[in-house]
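Record type: monomer structure entry
Structure origin: computed from sequence
Chain ID: A
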Amino acid sequence: MSVAANPSKYTNLRPARARSLGRFLAVLGPGIVVMLADTDVGSVITAGQSGVQWGYRLLLLQLVLIPILFMVQELTVRLGIFTGRGHGELIRDTFGPAWAWVSAGGLGVATVGALLTEFSGVAGVGEMYGVPRWASLPLAAVALLAVVLTGSYRRVELVAIAVGLFEFAFFYIAWAAHSDPHALVSGALSIPFANKEYLYLAAANIGAVIMPWMIFYQQSAVADKKLRPEHLAPARWDTAIGAVVTQLVMAAILVACAATIGRTSPTATLSTVGDMSHALTPFLGPDVGSAVYGAGVLGAGMVAAIVVSLAFAWGLGEVAGYRRSLEYRPLQARWFYGVYAASVVGGCVVVGLWPNLVSLNVGVQVMNALLLPLVLGFLIALARRALPAAQRLRGVYFWVVLGVAALTCALGVFGGFSGAGVLG
């Protein structure tokens, strides 16, 4: 049938498509934000060190982690939409207060480690331009407090996305590095499974992808945004796009460092953002080595600091029971905003007093890998018990998720202990 014969059929498609696009744009946010935060300062340094020490041998892992990351975060989306509750609250209501506090303890440990790396990175970027820590850290704290204390959830989300987009600078750095395609492919397929140092960095990369605060943040954000079952499909797309983007950013950093520093100085130790910037300068020029790299790190650190601090404020509130939502004003939810502010200010103060904490970056990611059994164990248990029957993990997909989670936990824990010398 021609368009002229039945014009209404085609004109009716336009409003339907417009509604679908509008729904997607309205839902878009939690997945993108948490994934941009996933590529935080610690992850940047971990990916860079991976490229320096092992060339392209950890590149394949970055791509393999894409579906695993999506699988994990999709469960948080499902839990947030169909229960309307955050992760900590759901654990408390399903398994009791004791287990809820255990999960909050794990979140607290991960939060401390993450904030130290984020603010160390922010301070490092400032020092690249001659700005001392006593100036850069208070400026960062004021900006982070202003974003959250003066805005609604949607405004915080938009600011976080805008800041996180600076991470796209790493794609330019990877392109400017001019890596050899043949060496890239052959290196990615050459994996030294028996090497303890390799396993340690592999564990760090796994820990850099799946972090406790990501699960708390996205589930709480979905609940705070009041997404409903009809939003499940666009929320999944939001998460899938974020998972692909964050791992491509990690791959870009690894490729850039492998093609430049790793080719000429494979024993270089890059423990600070300044080290990485200065090491890249001879290959990419001073403008790219400093300005572009600095923009990427600053975006990564700031968006991660927002997400990590909010995740802790939400998660602790869900367990302790205090009022928690970005839709409340500060005086209406004093504890929620107080915990957020204390996290931001405390992180800045600690980094200002102990300037060498950024050297803990890779270790923090390994710590996240060691927390995976606790984090994924709670997540899968909730997906089996707390969801409505039609949405629960079951059948073949349950065993796939369980198998992937078990393998990821085993690799992370074994790599961490082995690399640290615990297993001999």
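Annotation 1: The domain at 28-419 is CATH 1.20.1740.10 (Amino acid/polyamine transporter I).
Annotation 2: DSSP finds 20 helices and no strands in the chain.
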